[in-house]
Amino acid sequence: MRPKVPHLRGRSALPRARPLGEARSDSRRSSMWVMPEHRSVVVGVDGSPNSIAALHRAAREALERHARLDVVRVLETDGATAPPRLVRTAREWSRLRRLVAGSIPRAQHLNTRLRVVRGAPGEALARAAEHAELLVIGARVHSEHGNPLGGDTVPVVRERARCPIVICADHSTASETP
């Protein structure tokens, strides 16, 4: 028997945003906050424990900010050994959907958008977060390149992103690395 995986519906438990002072159709008073459509928290996810930690943090941030959660998977462009572009993108989107559905409790009622983009991870994440309120990424605790934040992605994101950045690490795996 296959375990049931909760599916994200893209719906939010929050009231739909409307201009201040616009009356509701029923007798209840309108809430006084406005949720613009462009409010978002972007998170880069590749399936690693650090990116899952970043996904959890980004979900909390999106809930607190009443913002949409944009989950981005970056496919690095490689040589001719890769499957056809459209097939790989569709397959990665399905994997991303299952990963997010298994990581974020359905009860959180997040408005979520999944995106698969191509390019260098640092540059692609900075572009994806161009209009975001926050960008959340995962990073290794230790790096083979001597970078304390791990890898090449973090320095590029820090240099190019226009919004605040949160860098997360899954410290449960930190003791396993040399």
From TrEMBL:
Residues 1-10 have a biased composition (Basic residues). Gene3D superfamilies: HUPs. It holds the Pfam family Usp. Belongs to the universal stress protein A family. Residues 19-29 have a biased composition (Basic and acidic residues). Residues 39-168 form the UspA domain. It comes from Actinomadura bangladeshensis. Residues 1-31 are annotated as: Disordered. This is Universal stress protein.
